[in-house]
Amino acid sequence: MLGDSKDRYGALSKTLHWLMAVLIGWQLLKFGDRIADGEHWVGQTLVPWHISIGSLLLVFIAARLLWAVSQRQHRPEQDPEIAVLVKAGHGLLYAGMLLMPLSGMMVMLGGGHGINAFGLQLVSEGEEIVLASALGSVHSPLAWALTVLIIGHIGMALIHHFIKRDDTLTRML
Ligand code: HEM
Ligand code: HEM
C-alpha cells in the first residue's frame, strides 16, 4: 500500500526513508575530505557528487515534508510515555534534512561559485555574497549535529528491535 496506516509505514514513506538514508550517508562521506585532503578512493569517487546529491536531497525533503503532513493522521502510533520525545527527535531529523542542503547552497552562493547539479547550471557563478557566506557557516556544525542525531536514531531503532523486541523497526522495513 502506498499510504501509511496505524500498523505500518506505506511504500512511499519507506522508499523516501531508505533512499534518503543512503543518500545522506553518502553526503556525510564529505567528512572524508579531512583525511589526507580527500586524496583517497572515497574522496575521488563518491565525494565529488556532493553538490549534485545534496541538491537532489532538497527536492526529496520537500516532497517528504508534504507527504508527512498528508499522512500525519494515519501514521503508526508511538508509545504514549515517550511520544513527545520521539516526535521531537523526528522533528529535529527533518530540520537537519532541510537545513543541510539549504546551508550548503549558501556556502556555494556566498563564495560566488554558483550551483551545478548533475551538469545542470542551477545558479551561475557571480559575486561573493557576505550574508550567504554567514548563513553557510552553519553547514559544518549542522553536519556534526545531524550525525549525532542519526547515530542516536539508529541506536533507538536497534534497541526497539533487539532489546524491547517490538515492531518499531519492522513497520519501517
Ligand atoms: C543533506 C545534504 C547535505 C549533507 C548531509 C552535507 C554534509 C556535509 C558534510 C558532512 C560536510 C563536511 C563538513 C566538515 O568537514 O566540517 C560538508 C561540506 C560541504 N558541503 Fe555539504 N552537505 C549537504 C548538502 C550540500 C549542498 C546541497 C551543497 C551545495 C549546493 C553542499 C556544499 C558543501 C560545501 C561547499 C562543503 C565544504 C565547505 C564547508 O565545509 O563548509 N552541501 N557537507
Ligand atoms: C540518514 C539517516 C536517517 C534519517 C535522516 C532518518 C529519519 C527518520 C525520520 C524523520 C523518521 C520518522 C518517519 C518519517 O517521517 O519518515 C524515521 C523513522 C524511522 N527510522 Fe529512520 N532515519 C535514518 C536512518 C535510519 C536507519 C539506518 C534506521 C535503522 C537502523 C532507521 C530506522 C527507523 C525506524 C525503525 C523508523 C520508524 C520509527 C517509528 O515509527 O517510531 N532510520 N527515520
TrEMBL record:
Q: How does the protein associate with the membrane?
A: Multi-pass membrane protein
Query: Does Cell membrane count among this protein's keywords?
Result: yes
Required co-factor(s) are:
heme b
Note whether Amino-acid biosynthesis occurs among the keywords.
no
Pfam families per record: Ni_hydr_CYTB
Q: Where this protein primarily resides, as one coarse class?
A: membrane
Keywords assigned: Cell membrane, Electron transport, Heme, Iron, Membrane, Metal-binding, Transmembrane, Transmembrane helix, Transport
Domain Cytochrome b561 bacterial/Ni-hydrogenase residues, every copy: 8-173
Q: Which GO terms describe its molecular function?
A: electron transfer activity; heme binding; metal ion binding
Residue spans crossing the bilayer: 12-29, 49-70, 91-115, 142-163
Biological process GO annotation list? respiratory electron transport chain
What is the annotated localization of this protein?
A: Cell membrane
Q: Name one GO cellular component term.
A: plasma membrane
Q: Which family does it belong to?
A: Belongs to the cytochrome b561 family.
The name under which this protein is listed is Cytochrome b
Annotated organism of origin? Marinobacter sp. MMG032
